[in-house]
Amino acid sequence: SPLWMLLLAALGATESGPRLASVGCGALSVWLFALQARRVCMTAAAAAATCVWAGSLWLVRHAPNGMESTAAVTLVLLAFELRARGPSRWRDLALGATLGGACLVRPELALLPLLFGIADVLDAHGRRRVATWLPACLLPCAAWLLFAWWRVGHVLPDTVTAKSGGPQVAAAYAVVEGAA
Question: Does the pTM of the predicted model rise above 0.70?
Answer without folding.
Answer: yes
